[in-house]
Design goal:
The complex is a heterodimer. Chain A is of the alpha+beta class. Chain A is 23% helix and 40% strand. Chain A has one domain: mini-chromosome maintenance (MCM) complex, domain 2 (Sandwich). In chain B, the strands form 4 sheets. Chain B has an 8-stranded antiparallel sheet. A 3-stranded antiparallel sheet of chain B has the order 3-5-4, with helices on one face. The chains are: A alpha+beta, B alpha+beta. β8 of chain A pairs parallel with β8 of chain B, so a sheet runs across the interface.
Chain lengths: 118, 339
C-alpha cells in the first residue's frame, strides 16, 4: 500500500514537473511577432503559413515554412529584414516598421549560447 | 515482487521530478526582445515567476527607451541634438544620464588618445554604408578639424555640455548601447532580479548565474562567416561582466575590391584597417562598447597595451585573421571556428 502511495505521489509530482519545465521555456517552440513594441501574433513554428502585416512602410509578408522563418516581403528603405533570409532561431528586426520577429525564444544561437556579441 | 516491479517506474518518476526542480528550483529563464534605440534589445532574466519576470523586463525596456530618447542622434527633440544644434553657440543643460555618458565617452577618448572620439559625427554622417556612398577625400579632410574630443566642455556643476566649434557633432553611437545595457541591468536588479542578460544588439551585460549555477555562455560572432554553421567564432563564459564587439563586417560595402566599414579612425576619417573584429570584456557595458571601437582603431599591438593598462580583457582578430587574447581570459574562452 505504501509503495502504491509513493508511486502515486511521484506520478503526480512528475506530471506537475512537466508543466513546470514547459513554463520555464515559454517561447521555445513559437514564432512571436511584436508590432510597435507589443506582442501581436504567436504562431507554432511547425505549421507552414504566411502572415501579412502593415506598418509605416506598407505591406510586410512573414513566411513560416519547414520550421524556418523569413521576412518574405517588405518595403522599408534598406530591406535588411528581407536580406536576413531564413532563420530557425533568433530574431529578425524591421526597425523602420517597428516589427520584431522572435523565433524559438530569442537570441540563443548555435552551440547553446545564451547571447551573441556582434 | 511488487516492490521490484515498482522500483524502475518509481525511479523514473523521481528523476523527472528532480530534473524539473533543476530548471524551476532556482527560477526559470524568461526572454523577450523589443526594437529600441534603433536596434533590437533582448532581455533575459531568471525569475521564480512569470509575472515578476514580465514586470522587470518591461521596466528594463522602459529604462532603455527613456535613455535612447535622450541621446538619439536623429531626433530633433533629443538632448544630444540640442547639444549639436548649439555647437559653437552656447552650453546646453542636460539630464544626469546624458552628462554621465558624455563624461565617460571623454574619459575613453583621453585614455585611448583619441582612438575613440565621440565627436566623430561630422565624418561618419558623410558615409552611407547601405547605399555604398563614400565621401571624397577632400570632404573627409575638410571635416577633420571638427573631430576633436578636447573641444567638448562638460560643466558638472551646471550640468551642461558645450561643443566649442560650430559644425561639431557628438555621436554617442559607439558608447550608448553599452551604457543602456548597464542602465537596464540596474533596473532589473532594483526589481529583485538576481540573474540575467541585457543585450542591446551586440552589447551584452550579464549578471548572476543561470538556474543550473553555471555562468552565461556568450558567443562571439565570426567576422568572416561563410555559412549558417560557422556563425560563432568563440564562446565565453561570463557572470557580472559585459562584452561588446566591434567589427569590419557590421556596416560595410566593398568598392573596387576594398572593404569600407563604419569604424573610422578619427585622425584620418578613413576606416581603420588593422583588425577584423575586437571584443572587449569588463564589468561595465559603457566601457566594453567604446573600448571595442578604440582597440579596433589602434590595432592589435597598441590595442592590447591599452587593454592591459586599463585592466580589461579582450579578443582581437587582426587583419590577417590571427587571434590575440589577453591572459585574463584563460579558462573562460573556447575558440570554435576559423575566422
Amino acid at each position: 500500500m505504501a509503495d502504491r502511495l509513493l508511486f502515486l505521489v511521484l506520478l503526480i509530482g512528475s506530471v506537475a514537473g512537466i508543466f513546470i519545465a514547459r513554463d520555464a521555456l515559454p517561447q521555445a517552440t513559437g514564432v512571436v511577432i511584436d508590432v510597435a513594441g507589443k506582442p501581436a501574433y504567436n504562431f507554432p513554428i511547425d505549421v507552414n503559413r504566411t502572415v501579412t502585416l502593415h506598418g509605416p512602410y506598407g505591406k510586410m509578408v512573414v513566411e513560416i515554412r519547414d520550421r524556418k522563418v523569413r521576412m518574405k516581403e517588405a518595403h522599408c528603405p534598406n530591406l535588411l529584414c528581407v536580406k536576413e533570409g531564413w532563420i530557425s532561431k533568433g530574431v529578425i528586426v524591421c526597425l523602420p516598421n517597428k516589427v520584431v520577429i522572435t523565433v524559438g525564444g530569442g537570441t540563443a544561437g548555435p552551440k547553446g549560447v545564451d547571447a551573441i556579441t556582434r | 515482487m511488487n516492490r521490484k516491479r515498482l522500483f524502475f517506474p518509481a525511479l523514473f518518476c523521481l528523476s523527472v521530478v528532480l530534473l524539473s526542480s533543476c530548471s524551476g528550483g532556482n527560477g526559470s529563464v524568461y526572454r523577450q526582445s523589443k526594437a529600441l534605440m534603433d536596434t533590437y534589445v533582448t532581455v533575459t532574466v531568471v525569475s521564480p515567476s512569470k509575472d515578476k519576470a514580465e514586470r522587470a523586463v518591461q521596466d528594463a525596456f522602459s529604462t532603455i527607451e527613456r535613455f535612447g530618447d535622450l541621446i538619439n542622434f536623429f531626433s530633433d527633440r533629443s538632448e544630444l541634438s540640442k547639444i549639436n544644434r548649439n555647437a559653437g553657440i552656447a552650453p546646453v543643460k542636460v539630464s544626469a544620464p546624458t552628462l554621465d555618458v558624455v563624461e565617460k565617452s571623454l574619459y575613453v577618448a583621453r585614455e585611448s588618445e583619441g582612438a575613440f572620439d565621440p565627436t566623430i559625427g561630422p565624418e561618419i554622417h558623410m558615409w552611407d554604408f547601405h547605399k555604398k556612398i563614400k565621401p571624397s577625400d577632400s570632404d573627409i579632410r575638410e571635416k577633420l578639424p571638427l573631430v576633436d574630443y578636447r573641444n567638448v566642455v562638460v560643466d558638472k556643476k551646471n550640468s551642461t555640455v558645450f561643443l566649442k566649434k560650430k559644425g561639431m557633432m557628438l555621436d554617442l553611437g559607439g558608447i550608448a548601447k553599452g551604457y543602456g545595457a548597464d542602465l537596464a541591468v540596474g533596473a532589473l536588479k532594483r526589481d529583485g532580479i538576481r540573474a540575467g542578460i541585457v543585450a542591446v544588439a551586440g552589447d551584452i551585460k550579464t549578471f548572476g548565474l543561470k538556474p543550473d549555477g553555471s555562468p552565461w555562455n556568450v558567443g562571439i560572432e565570426n567576422p568572416r562567416q561563410k555559412n549558417a554553421s560557422d556563425e560563432i567564432m568563440a564562446t565565453i563564459r561570463l557572470s557580472d561582466e559585459a562584452i561588446s564587439t566591434s567589427g569590419d563586417y557590421q556596416r560595410f560595402f566593398i568598392l573596387d575590391g576594398r572593404r569600407y566599414h563604419h569604424l573610422l579612425d578619427p585622425k584620418t576619417g578613413h576606416p581603420a584597417m588593422f583588425c577584423r573584429s575586437v571584443s572587449v570584456i569588463t564589468d561595465k557595458g559603457v566601457f566594453t562598447d567604446s573600448l571595442a571601437t578604440a582597440v579596433f582603431i589602434l590595432g592589435p599591438e597598441r590595442g592590447m597595451k591599452l587593454l592591459q593598462k586599463l585592466g580589461m580583457n579582450g579578443v582581437i582578430v587582426d587583419a590577417k585573421g590571427n587571434i590575440h587574447i589577453t591572459p585574463g581570459l584563460k579558462g573562460k574562452l573556447t575558440i570554435e571556428k576559423d575566422h
